[in-house]
Amino acid sequence: MLSLPAPHSLSSKFIKEKGVLRRNFERLLIGSRGKTGQALGAYGLTPPTARYWAQQFGLGYGVIAVSSYLLLILLTVLALDTWI
Fold this sequence. Notes:
Blueprint: H1 7-30, H2 36-43, H3 47-79
């Protein structure tokens, strides 16, 4: 007869592996001390860190652009005397 492992052992193993993967990924991108500047100082500008910085810059620019757009739309709507 086929015996299956207990469900909790599968989930705890998955969570443990997920934590290890996340920790390794963070070490790759931002260094073991958690500061990007130290990782750049230690390893230089590598393709993964350049992609990370470009992604962060793009996300920040996108948030500012969309927020400004929505704010201006709201300001325009509030400034109208009558609705068209």
